[in-house]
Amino acid sequence: MVDKLREHLTRLLPGLGKKRIDSLVVNYVAKLLELIRHMLDYVWVKYRLGPRVLCLTQQGSSSEWSVFHFMCRVLEATRGLCLPLPPGYNTVLSVLAVRCLPHHGFLQYVDHGVLQLTETLVTRLMADLDNSEANEKLKFSILKRLPEPVDQRVHHVWDHPVTSAIISRDYVRSVLESVQKQKGFEFTGKENMGFKPQFLPLTHLTQILSDVEQRALNPFAEQGAVDAHFVEETALKQTLVHLGFSRK
After folding, report:
1. What is the DSSP code string of 65-100?
2. CA 83 from chain center: how many Å?
């Protein structure tokens, strides 16, 4: 918003100068943020809300529902007018939504863009909520809606067999990829493999072994003809020596 407003004033009022325009823009945005903060403070005091409303393990009260409704209206107005919001506003709004809405309703608000799954919210939600059936369903639904970088960081917060398997899979993949770079393997991707396992570590291991197999030197590859009888006699003699029935 600051950049767009600065660009707009520079285009319409070039005579003010860059420093004057920057000062006007910053002061204007700061006043808007301060106004929204005052409104939130007033509502917070009016409904006597305290730090307990930020706990995700309890259900919200009617007062919290009223504050949630008010904050949704503020969010709608600021988006329509392209106004800024104070830092952490979306996280607090989403926390109230978790407390006040049923799980399916919360996910609908997320899908329609009303609520944002901030990393702070998701981290607290994964750590605070227990692994009951309903909460597990909610957590998996949230994980499916996260972008990949945030999703990978959140896996370390939730102590669950599925996330542990994902962390292990990602670790094995990173190790195998580093081995691939160090050894200089280039996966050839044989099309005649009898199976294509879906388990990622096994897939990488199979590809590495397949590549090593292709790179292995065949002692008979460069020879035009091999005396099979001589090879057989030599092998038999070595076996007799090894068993002690003959001398070298």
Report:
1. HHHHHHHHHHHHHHHHHT----TTHHHHHHHHHHHH
2. 29
